[in-house]
Fold these 2 entries.
Entry 1:
Amino acid sequence: MAAYYDTGVLVPLYVEETFSDAVTTLVESRNEAVLFNLFHRLEMENAVRLKVFRNEMDSDRGRAVIRKIGSSVDDGRLARRNVNWVAALEKARDIGKKATAKAGCRTLDMMHIAIAVQWDCDLFITADSRQLRAAHLAGLDALDLREYDYGQDGSTRGPGAVKEKRSRYRVKKRK
């Protein structure tokens, strides 16, 4: 079973955020490389640079996080796969026809869903309720990371523990 992780749940693997523990536990429990593409990399690196811009981390830490993302690609923890961009754009248009009026999904979010469909992923992982609904409308099973439940020992117990509202999904304060 292949999973597609939205960028919003990949960033917390590298930067301490509300969902960091949940996504780390999920990735470890699945015991597989995380499928990754250039779009992920662009969004992740830009998210880190935005954190520097917003003074949520200093520039040295930002550069270190970006290097760590690169190292994860190099060692295969982030398994880079190619995307047929023309087909992904066309699929995103199709998904938009079905999902935008119902889910309010943004174009870039639909691109992630289209890539997941292109890669035949059977699970889409996100913490965005609009993207979750659009993924369902595109025929994907989707896991809402906000509902992911994990025990103190790292075991999963089903939905319920994280339950963070989107407004609380931000960077934890630096100590």
Entry 2:
Amino acid sequence: MSPLLDQDPDALGSLEERIQQAVQLVVRLRQERDAALEQAALAKAETARMAGEARTLQAERKQVRARIEKLLGQIDQLSGS
């Protein structure tokens, strides 16, 4: 027998328990990593969606500004007549 087992007959049981705890920890950490990666992917997709929405709103704002400027120009022409 190894010197470890000669000194403590339950050392193997203790080692088994520690290995089982380590395996459970690895499984839990992998699950947490997978969940974090999924959340990151969702956040990235949401960011891309919001960036597209911001571009659309900026384009609409530019169009509205041009239409208002055109209307103001027409009002100025009425005032100048």
